[in-house]
Structure formats: structure tokens, C-alpha cells
TrEMBL record:
InterPro entries in alphabetical order: AB_hydrolase_fold (IPR029058), Fungal_lipase-type (IPR002921), Sec_MonoDiacylglyc_Lipase (IPR051218)
Gene3D superfamilies on file: alpha/beta hydrolase
Domain Fungal lipase-type: 60-204
One GO term of the biological process aspect: lipid metabolic process
Coiled coil: none
Protein name listed in UniProt: Lipase
Amino acid sequence: MKKLKRYQYERYAIFCQLAYPDAAEHYHRALQPFHQRKLVDKYGRMGVRILWTEKKKEVIVVFRGSLSFRDWLANLVFLPARINHFDQKFFVHWGFSRLLNQPMYSSTKTVDDALPLRELLEKVLEPLRQQGKRFTFTGHSSGGAVAVLMADYFERKHTKAVKRVVTFGQPAVGSRSWYKNYCLHRKTYRICCDLDIVTFMPPFPFYFWHVGKMLWLHDDQIYENTPTHERFLKSLHSWLLRPITYHYMRKYIRNKSLFDEH
């Protein structure tokens, strides 16, 4: 598995932030070099943004996370649902399966042209695939969950079409069978930040399994594939000691950049 480079992490993180309507204005400069296509729901809210350039072979497919109260309710319906990825059958989180099949339409069409998200994405991505481009799927929260589902499906249909999968604050997606048969473990980076409670969801750790390589950002370090219980205990320990660690001189040195603007 290749390492995820800093500029790649920053780029995907900004694109995930830009999937939300409240993204800071200065982030929008990151979109300037790209052609883009948006997929929107029946309310006109963007759910997926597709970004590419003529010169580079990478196409970045960004999935928005939960936005409305209805989205969050669907996340809480973690009953297992059966899905078929060609010759494989899995049980996955019902709410994320629903998101992958929700009616969406392209920003260049009308709501009458709505298709299930997975079907619509295939149609939009196919011309780019025929140009020899490869695809990075990324998303935050439930958007990350949909990204791994879509990436697995797309890779099974088009071998070696997926370049990588990068998710932020993603909950677990499926059962043990899903974990065992997921075909992109070596290309998937699951990024967690400190004690992000969503990354521990759903609260059934021996039924719902995470996939890929976990990169945990904690106390100014990156930990790889830290077990869930160890991650929780380290976070709790850090929280309990935080009032003391704020007294350390390194904390004062770390904040030196604040004086550049003072």
C-alpha cells in the first residue's frame, strides 16, 4: 500500500469540505483548475461532485455527508440490508445502502431524468473511463460510507479503474462478509480524528466492520490501524491530561504562528 501524501490528504479534505453549503469562500479556489459535474437530489442539494482535468488521469468523485435531519435519521437505521455486487452478496448498513440507491439527477438535466445514484454515476463516469482515466472516491461521514460502497462496485465492474479511496470520519459500513470480500483494502485510507464518535458507529463492533487502512490523527501524530478499544482509551487518557499538557512549553511554541498576524 502506497502512503497517502500530504498534498493528496489536503486536496481530498478540502473537496469534502466543499461538498457542504457552508464551506469557507477561500476553499473555492481549489476548484478553479477542474472541470466539474454535480449530481443533485430532488431538493436541488448537491450530493456528489465529480472533478477532473484534461491533462491528469485522476478523476475525483466526492460524496457529501449527512446534511438534514432526515439524513441523520437514515444513519441511525443500522439494520442490515442485502446488496449484490455482481458475484458477491453482502449485508451492509441499510441507511448507506439507501443513499447509494436514492434518486439523483445531473446538474445538466431536470428532476424528471432522476436515476438511482449508483446507476447515474456509472453513466456519468463512463465517458471519462473510456478516456483512460482512473477514479478516486472520497467523502466525509456517511459520504465516506457511500464512497467505499460505490468504489467496491465500480472496481468489480471495471478492474483497476479505482485509483484510491479516501474517507474522513466514516462510520463502519457492513458485516464480516463485506469486510472479507471488500476488494480495495490496499487502496483505501480511512482517516479518523481524535475521539470522533461517528467513527465508532454503528455501536456493534463485532457485526459492522471497517475496511482499508486506518490513519488516526491524534496528539500531533498519525497512528496506523489502532484497535478501536486502544483508540478510545488513548483519547480518554489525553482528555484527562489535557489541562496539564496545556502548561507544557511545546504548546506555547506550537502557537508561534499566531504572532505572524498579531
